[in-house]
Design goal:
The protein is an alpha+beta fold and 586 residues long. Mean pLDDT is 89; it is low at 428-439 and 529-534. It has 18 helices and 18 strands. Helix 9 crosses helix 12 (339-373), helix 12 runs antiparallel to helix 13 (381-391) and helix 13 crosses helix 15. The strands form 4 sheets. Strands 1, 2, 3, 4, 5, 6, 7, 8 and 9 form a 9-stranded mixed sheet that branches. Bound molecules: serine. Serine (SER) binds at residues 40-42, 88, 160, 201, 203, 224-226.
């Protein structure tokens, strides 16, 4: 099936089911400063999901371009992309589960033609916010999905949204395609991720999450359905990966023609990143230092680095763009109309990056020479960050060069400096938005203290290999990245939460003192030492539970933190886990 036929088939069917087809919104959200990109079809519809009347009615559908950079490290496998299209449909307080899932099943099996016996589904297992979704499971069974192909999963897997920190969300029911035709028996997409491809998500958007992390019932329950266009196209054409579909074949072939080495992963990353960069640039964004321009820069530079790695010589992105654009011009003519401008911008960015690399290399050579001269075997993370920040010089290249000179790079320090900078610029953006000066609020101060407790608890529960890899705090939540190879079990998460709350309940005093680095090391204080050569450091102690080098400020004792709740864990790259947590009133 051709790409455009699939888009049309989808829209024709939804139209025949009395849905109004709404426009494909821009990738750069209009009137929404809380996110950089449209990441799902529901995004531009948030006000209507919250109850405002939509001028086009209560049953809507569209094809929506989306960009997600949180999956960037997965790109290169068979199914992940940064730019993708989502086939979306919505009931804004109109039909509910039975009609929604019946419509979905008919669409997938009769309209698209997926074999019903290759479909497995997951439903929400239930918790204190919403009950187990037996209703959805029963509907699936009535439609012919055997109980052995229905799995109940927790909030982490089967609850969608909100897209930002607050907004519409709810339990969901995902549909997976079973890649193993010999296996007629059930199967669970979580324990056998290789065997299943997620092709669709039905979200029962009946809740709104507020700034305190609480869920409220929406005045109208909505259904939000998102179907992965590229993945369905891949399966319907018997392809092994999205990169084998007509959307990618010409691009992949051209990259392979230019390359000196065979490296499927690099080829896929280049194809994906260039396509994403072109779609964003077609909306008037040029590569730059912050926000969307920065994401475009990152995508382009990552593509160039992979290009260099497989031996592509000279500037190549503009040439490649001429191959990418025709693969999408049926549905997105704007790219073709702007082809000249887009190619010029790519050329300029490629040249700028080359100059950056030359300047950065010089500076890096100086730094390595200095480190050696002072007998320091580690390049400070802040120096690496400075190279990155001032010259746009990528950390991977810093590491390579340092390694060949026998010097390590304090990657944790780099990550910390990076996060601090991001937090600052995000804060800066928020300040610009509010038009005033933000002081550090009591809320962020409490969350800083909670982060220390979290790190200490993680080390108690998981082991001392746990080290901070990044931290980011807003006035609503903390986000903490740390070294750990596996997903935490629910028991581990519960235990971490319990340990933190125990410290809060005991209202432990938070004290600090300044000392030399050596003294801090002798106290086994956690912290990023290599970045603080020679300095005196401030060490914060929370009773005997946590000792950590930090600039502060912190609350005076832990009692006011009230109640610590882990909201989410996810991967933040290979060997790194991320926890998001909030403080709630008890
Ligand atoms: N909002 C859901 C998703 O992005 C379904 O559209 O998966």
């Amino acid at each position: 099936m051709k790409a455009n036929d699939l888009r049309n088939k989808y829209l024709d069917f939804l139209r025949s089911q009395n849905h109004t087809i709404i426009q494909n919104a821009p990738l750069i959200p209009e009137n929404d400063p809380s996110v950089l990109f449209t990441t799902a079809g529901m995004h531009p519809l948030a006000p209507y999901l919250l109850g405002m009347a939509h001028p086009a009615g209560r049953k809507l559908a569209n094809v929506q371009k989306c960009l997600r950079t949180n999956d960037i490290l997965e790109v290169g496998d068979d199914t992940h992309l940064t730019f993708f299209e989502m086939l979306g449909s919505w009931s804004l307080g109109d039909y509910w589960k039975e009609e929604a899932l019946t419509l979905n099943f008919t669409l997938l099996t009769e309209v698209f033609g997926h074999a019903p016996d290759r479909l497995s589904v997951t439903c929400f297992a239930g918790d204190e916010d919403a009950p187990r979704d037996d209703e959805a499971a029963q509907i699936w069974q009535d439609l012919g999905i055997p109980a052995s192909r229905i799995t109940f999963l927790s909030k982490e897997e089967n609850w969608w949204g909100p897209a930002g920190l607050t907004g519409p969300c709810g339990p969901d029911s995902e549909v997976f395609y079973d890649l193993d035709p010999t296996n007629s028996e059930g199967g669970d997409p979580v324990s056998q991720p290789e065997r299943f491809v997620e092709i669709c998500n039905n979200v029962f958007m009946a809740f709104e999450k507020d700034g305190n992390g609480c869920y409220h019932h929406l005045p109208q329950p909505n259904v939000d359905v998102g179907i992965g266009f590229e993945r369905n196209l891949m399966l319907l054409n018997g392809c092994q990966s999205v990169f084998e579909t007509e959307l990618f074949v010409p691009i992949i072939e051209e990259i392979q023609r230019l390359a000196q080495q065979d490296n499927a992963f690099a080829v896929r990353v280049i194809a994906d990143h260039l396509r994403s960069a072109l779609f964003v640039m077609a909306e008037g964004i040029i590569p730059g230092k912050t926000d969307q321009p920065y994401v475009v820069r990152r995508l382009i530079r990552r593509a160039i680095r992979y290009g260099n790695e497989i031996g592509i010589k000279g500037s190549f992105l503009a040439k490649l763009a001429e191959v990418v654009i025709p693969t999408v011009s049926d549905a997105y003519p704007a790219l073709e109309e702007k082809q000249g401008q887009l190619c010029t911008a790519l050329d300029e960015e490629e040249q700028r990056f080359q100059r950056t690399l030359v300047r950065g290399e010089r500076k890096l050579a100086d730094l390595i020479r200095e480190s050696r001269h002072h007998g320091q075997p580690v390049l400070a993370g802040e120096a690496a960050f400075d190279l990155y920040q001032t010259f746009g010089y990528p950390i991977e290249l810093v590491e390579e060069a340092a390694q060949s000179a026998g010097i390590a790079v304090n990657k944790a320090g780099f990550q910390q400096a990076f996060e601090d900078h991001q937090a600052l610029s995000r804060q800066g953006a928020a300040d610009r938005f509010k038009g005033g000066l933000a002081e550090r609020s009591l809320e962020t101060t409490k969350l800083h203290t909670a982060t220390h407790l979290l790190q200490a608890a993680l080390r108690q529960v998981l082991g001392t290999h746990v080290e901070q890899r990044g931290s980011n705090i807003t006035n609503q939540r903390l986000r903490f990245d740390f070294s750990h190879g596996e997903r935490l079990s629910q028991t581990e998460l519960d235990e971490v939460e319990r340990l933190v709350n125990q410290q809060i309940e005991s209202d432990v005093p938070v004290t600090w003192s300044e000392m030399s680095l050596t003294e801090a090391q002798e106290m086994d204080a956690l912290g990023l030492f290599a970045d603080r050569y020679g300095d005196t450091v401030k060490v914060y102690c929370i009773g005997a539970f946590s000792t950590e080098v930090c600039g502060g400020p912190h609350v005076e004792s832990t009692g006011p933190l009230e109640n610590f709740r882990i909201k989410k864990q996810e991967s933040a790259g290979s060997g790194i886990r991320r926890i998001k947590a909030v403080l709630v009133d008890s």
